[in-house]
Design brief:
The protein has about 400 residues and is an alpha/beta fold. The protein is built from 14 helices and 14 strands. The chain has a ten-stranded mixed β-sheet with strand order 5-4-6-7-1-8-14-13-9-10, sandwiched between helices. α4 runs parallel beside α7, α8 packs across α14 and α11 packs across α12.
């Protein structure tokens, strides 16, 4: 069955570059296997937290060409590769489309942290003249959208959403509005982050956000588990090609799922901690369901934010139970991929669409003892096959940003 609200948009292409794989198929298979990607990270050696979920075997020069790759920070490299995958997957050709009707909306929070740290070292250790003239255009957050637009010849609106870990989800919501308003015919939307640098990881460690399970990194990201102690930082990119359903049908495109609802809110409570009442997340979730025109009892599956932090998982768990009850199959794919920060919502939106297409809910990796305060039907152990028609993906970010997306099978 296809559920369509007046504001629905179709997902016709998916591109993923994650710690679970260098494309959507490989990432999806790894997530469904429930095998964690967290491992010791040589670039973090000597730090109190020396492990991460880094994209394995990513050769930017081979994928983008050496002359292009060296001009781009890693977060932009990941995004462009994911965007190319998504466009090809959608069966679109940037050489023949009307680029004035194509938009690019990408979520990013920290920009080119690798560039900033490298160039700052040069400034301090060598001399001002050793600083690259490309430092600013490589490091700026907005450049991920700018370079993606250049790469795919998109001349419509392009921008970056910076709402921390809700950035990717908000990018998809804004892209939906560009399509339904008639501003664009195609929008590339998603998120990208590559902040696995010594200073960033040290900052996250100092604020108490990261798991300290150094003796067993693979078991460190354990969403909703009673023994969780923090998240595992990750990098990656997820880009979706979005079109109006009628346009997708007219050109015979294959559709993964429809985005039928979006809601956004702010806690206005604390810079980093979620409101323990979950009131902000609840407003976003209820707004998304109302926007989609579906009842809470129609939701079959939730890809939860589920960071593996003590406060977040309890607050989110209470909201999901209060609004959706015990029926939906809930997962957090961060147990496998880690937390890719601003890219997380986009990566998880892709996984949600894939769950609807395949009728499979990935397991929540490392969940062995569900926190008694979290009364949800959380998948664990192995993937669950199910008849899925409506699914939700939730995102919560530092600053109190909340976003929820509702998807429908086609």
């Amino acid at each position: 069955m296809t559920l369509l609200s007046k504001r629905a948009v179709a997902i016709t292409g998916v591109g993923l570059v994650t710690a679970a794989g260098l494309d959507a198929r490989t990432s999806w298979e790894r997530v469904c296997s429930g095998r964690s990607t967290a491992a010791p990270d040589p670039e973090l050696a000597g730090l109190p937290v020396d492990f991460s979920c880094r994209v394995p075997g990513f050769d930017a020069g081979a994928r983008l060409g050496p002359s292009n790759a060296w001009r781009l920070d890693r977060f932009t490299q990941l995004a462009i590769v994911a965007a190319r995958q998504a466009v090809a997957d959608a069966g679109l050709d940037p050489e023949s489309w009307d680029g004035t009707r194509v938009g690019v909306i990408v979520g990013n929070s920290l920009g080119g942290t690798g560039t900033w740290e490298q160039q700052h070292r040069r400034f301090l250790e060598d001399a001002p003249k050793s600083v690259s003239p490309l430092m600013i255009p490589m490091g700026m957050s907005n450049m991920v959208a700018g370079h993606m637009a250049i790469d795919v010849k998109a001349f419509g609106p392009s921008m970056v959403t910076a709402t921390a870990c809700a950035s990717g989800s908000n990018a998809i919501g804004l892209a939906r509005d560009l399509l339904r308003s008639g501003t664009c015919d195609v929008v590339l939307a998603g998120g990208a982050e590559a902040a696995l640098t010594p200073a960033t990881i040290t900052g996250l460690t100092r604020m108490g956000g990261l798991s300290g399970r150094r003796e067993d990194p693979a078991a460190a990201s354990r969403p909703f588990d009673a023994a969780r102690d923090g998240f595992v930082a990750a990098e990656g990119a997820g880009i979706l090609v979005l079109e109006r359903p009628e346009d997708a049908r007219a050109r015979g495109a294959s559709v993964y799922a429809d985005v039928i609802g979006f809601g956004s809110s702010t806690d206005a409570y604390h810079a980093t901690a979620p409101d323990p009442s979950g009131a902000g997340m609840e407003r976003a979730l209820r707004a998304a369901l109302a926007d989609a025109g579906v009842g809470a009892d129609e939701v079959d599956h939730v890809n939860a934010h589920g960071t593996s932090t003590p406060l977040n998982d309890v607050a989110e768990g209470r909201v999901l139970r209060r609004v959706l009850g015990e029926r939906p199959l809930v997962t957090s794919t961060k147990g496998v991929t880690g937390h890719a920060l601003a890219a997380a919502g986009a990566i998880e939106a892709a996984f949600t669409a894939l769950a609807l297409r395949h009728g499979v809910v990935p397991p929540t990796a490392n969940l062995t003892d569900l926190d008694p305060e979290i009364d949800l039907n959380v998948t664990s152990g192995k993937a669950a096959e199910a008849d899925l028609e409506v699914a939700v993906s939730t995102s919560l970010g530092f600053g109190g940003h909340n976003a929820a997306l509702v998807f429908a099978a086609v």
